[in-house]
Amino acid sequence: MHATLPLFPIEASVQAGRTDELFFIVLGMSVVVLGVVAALVIGFAIRYRRGSPAKRGPLPPLISREIEIAWTAGTLFTFLFVFWWASSLQLAAKAPPADAMPIRVLAKQWMWKMEHPNGVREINTLHVPIGRPVRLIMTSQDVIHSFYVPVFRMKQDVLPGRTTTTWFQATRTGTFRLECAEFCGTDHARMLGSIVVMSAPDFALWSEAQPESDSLAQKGAALFRTLGCSGCHATQSAVKAPDLAGLYGRAVRLADGRTVKADDAYIRDSILQPLKDIVAGYQPIMPSFAGAVSDADLQDLIAYVRSLKDGGTP
Fold first, then answer.
1. DSSP state of 55
2. Mean pLDDT of the chain
3. How confident is the model over 67-111, as pLDDT tens digits?
4. 95 has which bridge partners?
5. Is 187 exposed, middle or buried (0-12, 13-18, 19+ CB in 10 A)?
6. Whole-angstrom Cα distance, residue 191 to residue 145?
7. Exposure winner among 50, 105, 183, 216, fewest CB in 10 A?
8. Contact 289, 229 (CB under 8 A)
9. Taking a C-beta distance cutoff of 8 angstroms, is the pair 98, 249 a contact?
10. Which residue has the higher pLDDT, 281 or 132?
């Protein structure tokens, strides 16, 4: 495992190379600006030092107005370019590839709990295959944490009461350091873990060797029935409630005229705050399950809704 953090960590993900390119360009521009400013300060300090015969009266214009406008505009456009580049990198982290492997992450003082789509659970360790995009769907059980993997150049805050997502694609095998980058309490410094990147065959063998467990969607389906949700959302139900089959990722028309996307955040809000976004054509009769379900339960329920295809079956 890479136990120490060198001055400049290795690159171990697709995003790392892009981030480093931006870093070095901004660093180079900063060095150039610093050098010019330092040279001017030193030059003026020597030329106009006390006792120097240099004239100190008003100086004639040394540079034309056109040149001043040109360098001001050049500085502005350079800033806008760097801003666009940095923003595009951040936005790219919000849009994982369609075939990304979803991993549910639950942060709590002071550990990371991960769960694979097939139900395999890990604590403070996450095994992933090399070359495959991995989508992290994260929430916190208590306070704000931050999922930080230096060699991936990846950092994402994990918030209580909200679902945040990010993704990465590892480019080299090995065991890499995972840490919390947001002060979260007494044992914050001990909230450490590791990302184990394996070859595809090794990952398949590791996954098959894990104890069998219900998948997130299967646990969500059982909880869905236990909470009585099927009594309203089932196709044959006498109560008129929105059909959940094929809902995930679809545009939903609301009673107030807005249109929202049925993503993780929307489903979470619908469970905890059902009066927030009322679907057009339906009465606000759904009760709130705030306090009745845990963050882990919410992840299971979201996975179940995500798994439903048109026709109502996973």
1. -
2. 83
3. 788 888 888 888 888 888 888 877 776 778 878 888 989 999 899
4. none
5. exposed
6. 10
7. 50
8. no
9. no
10. 132
